[in-house]
Amino acid sequence: MPVELDSTHLGGAIFVIVPRVLGDNRGFFMETYRADNFRDLGLPTEWVQDNHSRSAKGVLRGLHFQWEPPMAKLMRVTRGAAFLVAVDIRKGSPTLGQWLGLEVSEENKKQVYAPYGFARGFCAVTDECEVQYKCTGIYNSGGESGISYKDPEIGIKWPLKDVQVSEKDMKAQSLAEWLASPLSDRITYQEFMQP
Description:
By secondary structure, the protein is mainly beta. 9% of the residues lie in helices and 39% in strands. The chain has helices at residues 35-41, 167-170, 175-180; strands at residues 4-9, 14-18, 21-24, 27-30, 49-55, 60-66, 73-79, 81-88, 99-105, 111-114, 118-124, 129-135, 144-146. The longest helix is centred in the first third of the chain and has 7 residues, at 35-41. The radius of gyration is 16 Å and the shape is globular. The protein starts with a strand and ends in a 15-residue tail after the last helix.
């Protein structure tokens, strides 16, 4: 029962995948990850950290990224619904500054894979929203940063206007400020960038 590719976005870098679900009056069963299946789709098979977040409606987290070690993420919603976002921040990329936003829920069971070189975030659109995500790199506070969720040059159309944001995310830099930083030379576009 492998997951299936639903769509790709931003030059084929972002993958939206959906599981095959078996269900009856007792509930359901699905595979959310299988190494051979992910390898066949061109997705990472080595995940080193799983994260689980719970948020009230209107909580917005992001946009976060990490360069040391490089971190790709596979995100899914296991309770409620969230608007998941990925923004291309790779210097020299033909889709630099472009974004994908998608509502993912416990009902549609979609997963969004965003590779290294993308800033990721989400907005909870229901109460008690739970987001789980796999990471290809272990979190390192000294090798991560963020882009402002309200950067007008990116222009993300968030589904809610009244949002709650952490102090750290409120003070995040613009994409232009990130690109002017020497640290941004660590995240550059490569046509066939590995996760």
